[in-house]
Amino acid sequence: MNEAASTPSSSTGHRERLRARFLADDASVIAEVELLELLLTYAIPRRDVRPLAESLLAKFGSAKEVLAAASGDLEKVSGIKESSVALLKLAHRLSMVGAACPVTPVSSPETSEEPSAIEPETQVHTPPTEKSSSLRPASKAPSDPKPSKKSDPPKLQVSNGYLLEPAQNAQVISFVAEQTSARKIGRSQIVEATGLSDRQIESLASVATALGLVVPRTQLLTPWGMLVHKHDLFLDSPVTLEFCHFLGAGRPRNLVWFKIFNELLASGKPTDQPGWSMWLREKLAGQYSESSLIKHIAEEVRFILDAYTIKNFKKLNLLIETPDKTIALRRYTALLPLTLAAMIYWVGDEHEARLVSFSELQAEPGSPGRIFGLDASSLRQMVEVLHQKGWIRYEVRHGLDQIRLIDGFQPLEFLAAAYENREPEIQSKPHEPEPLLL
Fold first, then answer.
1. Is residue 128, in this structure, part of any structural domain at all?
2. How many structural domains does the chain have?
């Protein structure tokens, strides 16, 4: 079926508004998914393309990676036809015109049928400003000034068949924190120090990476991991659990975790545990072998349900289990103001922007509103509290619905203030954000 021959959409006005905002030089406050949606409308003129734009971002991680993806990998996404592939590749080629260096073909972020569960892929992030600390983050070339938090390919296996174990996680983090001069810590070193098996360490490192606590491959602590080590080693505090949920469920890299909270639970249709697995297998069919989907999805679903209904994340009371064993997402209205502020500034850093649209916080995949089950009214009240405290500027007049970030505030400072029960402080270098992850 030709893409243009789909059922006429009722969203013509939405497309026109998107185009008008873009042409009015207002692209800085348009969400990435909306920019990709606008681009796709030129290949698919009579269909709602928002779900397709969301699927592309969920698979590849960012609009930049969507444009850079190989044609064959784009065609694997349900709903993408030849005309859409041609438009996306044309946009990528045009973006490279005039580059100082020759254009090198970019391979797909998903290079094998079964991504390795042994070591998470390396993320490249800007190191924090040197401060007095007993913890040493991974070093990095100073020529890369911006963190790249969305470039990692999706990872089917996060738990590797194990469950969330805060006590063992504390063992690993404590040992890693003591290696103040290390540039990389091998798994064999952690095995020897903790007495845990290599397979357990592999799982613990993978889960800690998903929660943003550990730098992939190096096994060193991220700045966020250092903060958790200092204040909440056993992952008990609401600050830790809220922000770890934001990172775990909010990043497309954690594939099953992300899809469960951003698509399955966000749909509002309660489903039991076998239903979760079946839904995920259908969603990911063709991207992995059937044997991998059957085995690994069941393991990941078990890990998430155990973490949120038995282990530490149960304290958030996010999941409701009915008598017939179906599971739904509960609206979480207890979100701490300082933690929410950290999330908002995190989103700003992700987009390298000082303006964040309200829709990016409420409805976008990975947003606080989506993964905490918050409707627009509830989230808006929370944002207004932050505005009243002077931590953000919430602009709703003259047709605006956006949050302006204040120079000098950093996500890590809001989290530190939450742990220490104090007001956040403006940092001395307002234009050099200190990342939570490396």
1. no
2. 2
Residues 267-286 have a mean pLDDT of 92
Q: Is 410:188 a contact under the CB 8 Å cutoff?
A: no
Alpha helices in 319-404 (DSSP H): 337-350, 358-362, 368-371, 376-388
Residue 307: half-sphere exposure toward Cβ, Cα within 13 Å: 24
Query: Dihedral through CA 360, CA 364, CA 367, CA 373, nearest 10?
Result: 120
Q: Where are the alpha helices (DSSP H) in 27-70?
A: 32-41, 50-60, 63-68
User: Under DSSP, is residue 427 helix (H, G, I), strand (E, B) or coil?
Assistant: coil
Q: How far apart are CA 210 and CA 119, in angstroms?
A: 12
Which whole number is the average pLDDT over 96-118?
Answer: 39
Provide the pLDDT for residue 11: 55
**Terminal Cα distance for the chain, rounded:** 45
CATH number (domain holding residue 414): 1.10.10
Q: Which of 65, 214, 84, 67 is nearest to 151 (CA)?
A: 65
Q: Around Cβ 217, how many Cβ atoms within 10 Å?
A: 17
The pLDDT of residue 435 is 61
136/250: higher pLDDT: 250
Domain end among 96, 113, 132? 96
Two tokens, residue 287: 């991207």
Q: What does the alpha-carbon distance between residue 23 and residue 395 come to, in Å, rounded to a whole number?
A: 21
Output the furthest CA–CA distance in the chain (Å, rounded): 63
Examine residue 19 and state whether it is found in any structural domain, yes or no: yes
> How does pLDDT run across 31-72, given as a tens digit for each residue?
778 888 888 888 887 788 888 888 888 888 778 888 888 887
**Percent of the chain whose pLDDT exceeds 90:** 55
Residue type at 114?
A: E
**Is residue 404 one of the residues assigned to a domain?**
yes
Residue 45 domain boundaries: 3-96
Whose CA is closest to 118, among 15, 177, 199? 199
Write down how long the chain is.
438
Q: Say which residues have a Cβ less than 8 Å from residue 271's Cβ, sequence separation at least 6.
A: 264, 279, 326, 327
- What pLDDT is stored for residue 91 in this prediction? 85
Q: Is residue 43 part of a domain?
A: yes
Is residue 107 over pLDDT 90? no
